[in-house]
Amino acid sequence: DTTVKQNPRYKLARVGKPVNLICSQTMNHDTMYWYQKKPNQAPKLLLFYYDKILNREADTFEKFQSSRPNNSFCSLYIGSAGLEYSAMYLCASSRTNSGNTLYFGEGSRLIVV
Amino acid sequence: GDSVTQTEGLVTLTEGLPVMLNCTYQTIYSNPFLFWYVQHLNESPRLLLKSFTDNKRTEHQGFHATLHKSSSSFHLQKSSAQLSDSALYYCALSPANSGTYQRFGTGTKLQVVP
After folding, report:
1. Which of B15, B33, B58, B89 has its CA 20 to 30 A from that of A12?
2. Chain A closest CA to B50's CA: distance in Å?
3. Which site among B52, B97, B102, B103 would you substitute to test the A interface, given the most A Cβ atoms closer than 10 Å to its Cβ?
4. Looking at the partner chain, which of B44, B101, B107 has a beta carbon nearest the beta carbon of A104?
């Protein structure tokens, strides 16, 4: 089973409200990632967990938070959504020593109004 | 920082013609891993092929690519396009093989027509 699951698949949020996106995988992968994808742009890496170590990109450091309570789950938290957060959020996971192949979830589409 | 460049946003080909999608990269790391992911409509991206060995051809599902460190390139090729190859193709780079990030290019949409 190489499934990565994301919830919710669709989220409508008001400006200024919090958003929490969830990702899970059952492959015992040690690394989990969150990417933001906007139309005609490259998937942008927001952060990743290598085991319990969180790595956040410098330019999005203060905008996104994350937690990984166990190996299987990883969340992405936006404290106060802005219009610019409207995007597809892709979760992915990978395993050390497997060539770092990413396995993607189906994505969570966030629309902020 | 690291970056991946895919110069073509859209490539339209007639079925049966050869495919070549360009990918170049920049990195400070001497042994990067390069990947091609394919995303079909309404699906998630999935790995097509990957390489970290200089000048070695990697093949999968009729596609092939060779990592050339001298030119920082990892172009994707196929001898004969099929209608089912129509999809979005991403090139990605990772500085190592574990516990680290992958950076993606903007993607090339391949449209194969009859």
Report:
1. B89
2. 8
3. B102
4. B44
Does the pLDDT at position B96 exceed 90? no
A97 confidence band (pLDDT: 50, 70, 90): low
Check: CB of residue A43 under 8 Å from CB of residue A107.
no
Q: Is B20 on the interface with A (CB under 8 A)?
A: no
Cα-to-chain-centroid distance, residue A76: 5
- pLDDT tens, position by position, B32-91: 999 999 999 989 999 999 999 999 999 999 999 999 999 999 999 999 999 999 999 999
pLDDT at A60: 84
The residues facing B89 across adjacent strands are B38, B108
Residue B8 contacts residue B72 (beta carbons within 8 Å): no
Contact call for A45 and B101, based on CB within 8 A: yes
Q: What is the mean pLDDT of residues A95-106?
A: 83
Of residues A35, A97, A100, nearest to B94 (C-beta)? A100
